[in-house]
Automatic annotation (TrEMBL):
Pathway: Steroid biosynthesis; zymosterol biosynthesis; zymosterol from lanosterol: step 4/6
One of the protein's GO biological processes: cholesterol biosynthetic process
Organism: Collichthys lucidus
Highest taxon of the lineage: Eukaryota
Domain 3-beta hydroxysteroid dehydrogenase/isomerase positions: 13-264
Protein name per its UniProtKB record: Sterol-4-alpha-carboxylate 3-dehydrogenase, decarboxylating
InterPro entries: 3Beta_OHSteriod_DH/Estase, Lipid_A_modif_metabolic_enz, NAD(P)-bd_dom_sf
Subunit structure, interactors included: Homodimer.
Keywords: Acetylation, Cholesterol biosynthesis, Cholesterol metabolism, Endoplasmic reticulum, Lipid biosynthesis, Lipid droplet, Lipid metabolism, Membrane, NAD, Oxidoreductase, Steroid biosynthesis, Steroid metabolism, Sterol biosynthesis, Sterol metabolism, Transmembrane, Transmembrane helix
Amino acid sequence: MATRVRPSSKRCAVIGGSGFLGRHLVEKLLDRGYSVSVFDIRQSYELPGVTFHQGDLCDKQALLPALKDVSLVFHCASPAPASDDRRLFERVNIQGTRTVIQACVESGVQKLVLTSSASVVFEGTDIKNGKEDLPYAKKPIDYYTQTKIEQEKLVLEACDKEKGFFTVAIRPHGIFGPRDPQLVPILVDTARRGKMKFIIGDGTNLVDFTFVENVVHGHILAAERLRSDSPSCGKPYHITNDEPIRFWDFMSEVLVGLGYAAPRYHLPYTLVYTLALLLWLLALILRPLMSFKPTFTPMRVALAGTHHYYSCDRAKQDLGYKPVVSLKEGIARTVQSYPHLKQGA
Ligand SMILES: NC(=O)C1=CN([C@@H]2O[C@H](COP(=O)(O)OP(=O)(O)OC[C@H]3O[C@@H](n4cnc5c(N)ncnc54)[C@H](O)[C@@H]3O)[C@@H](O)[C@H]2O)C=CC1
Ligand SMILES: CC(C)CCC[C@@H](C)[C@H]1CC[C@H]2C3=C(CC[C@]12C)[C@@]1(C)CCC(=O)C[C@@H]1CC3
């Protein structure tokens, strides 16, 4: 009779490992002595100790070889929020996550760590020190958020102590750091087009921005603490820098660090939000004829003009989490890592 080989606890897979967070996670896992199998729709780098599997996570047959002899899987793949493509989000984040769960169960994977998002509870209104027991957004602000909610529910509901399949969800917020393709590049592009002169609202709203290495640290702690007797089974965890900052102070520090002027003039929040909503509707109506992507989407305006910061007390208590890089150091390292985005470069 063939005996099943028990997967090594130091062998793991990172789905979405070619992305911003995924690659930082892979690098840290290698440092900690793991061997890593990366599954992604694209390959963006090569590293010793990493085996790449290129494919779409919605395709179980493509996924299975990447999970062979793996005991721990991190799922941090998602289409970019900026794509605003409902069908793509539903296919990848919902159906694809079902496929990931099935593939994990079939392969004998014991632990699945999902990268969710703190935005699953965000409806465009203030959240101050939000805890994990806040209800999911009833009216999610965009398709990305809507499908991240369904994805998180699927993964947490799949946790089955009897069968030895343990799941946990990490909810980071506003990830930034070297190689981020989103926050700093969009900010600089907006500044270069002369559109970063305005502060939306009174500029006092507090927000969490989380340095990527802290997000990685939270994922690894969650994975290593996940066992049948741990309180984290089937639970979500906020992971932030635990240093809420005014949204516009953070933007200004990054902009000034890169040689651009900080925004100065104030615009009323409701006016900008209404304009962003109208533009979004116009882009939707015109989509069959032409494609244009407004910079100020309703989601971005809501994020820029409201309080949204979260408590990570649960992660501190259950996972022993504590940020490893301060906001000040994170911003300095981020600014330094983008010489090509500096003013005049
Ligand atoms: N960047 C942020 O501020 C935040 C991100 N998150 C979550 O963190 C995770 C990682 O995000 P980032 O690293 O910022 O994004 P990213 O876009 O850099 O990485 C996502 C990766 O997923 C891959 N991918 C997309 N569709 C795929 C498919 N069908 N099959 C296989 N691979 C596929 C992409 O090729 C990419 O490498 C995502 O789940 C995102 O929802 C959560 C909170 C905040
Ligand atoms: C044009 C300006 C008003 C804003 C420029 C910066 C924004 C691009 C970023 C500020 C907050 C960021 C953020 C995300 C994406 C980039 C920002 C909007 C997420 C939506 C990424 C995915 C998530 O899960 C939540 C993030 C919240 C913060």
